[in-house]
Specification:
With 108 residues, the chain is of the alpha/beta class. It contains five helices and three strands; from the N terminus they run ααβαβαβα. The longest helix has 13 residues.
């Protein structure tokens, strides 16, 4: 769903099956922005955010979550503390996500 939304808006999208693949991809591919779910196999989103910010402390990251054992609020607060500049509970509005993307991409 995210891929379709972003490609329709003209963004080039690179995606990964899980957190481990996302980190490996980020190490070898220049991207302007990362959108990560927090509940993923192999590395959860929190672990991935820590890896992204180790690779690039200035990484622009949006974290999304629909919940889990401790609830989406706790996961998203943890993601923000670790470096995600924007966080969204699922479901989120397309327009809100696109505004956050544009805002982050406009920052140096």
């Amino acid at each position: 769903m995210l891929r379709d939304i972003l490609e329709r808006e003209g963004f080039e999208v690179v995606d990964a099956e899980n957190g481990s693949e996302a980190v490996a991809l980020y190490e070898r591919t220049a991207v302007d922005l990362i959108i990560t779910d927090l509940l993923m196999p192999e590395h959860d989103g929190v672990e991935a955010i820590m890896a992204f910010t180790r690779i690039n402390p200035a990484a622009k990251i949006i974290a999304i979550s629909g919940g889990g054992r401790i609830g989406p609020r706790d996961y998203l607060e943890m993601a923000a503390a670790l470096g995600a500049q924007r966080t969204f509970y699922k479901p989120f509005k397309r327009k809100t996500l696109l505004a956050a993307i544009e805002e982050l991409l406009a920052q140096p």
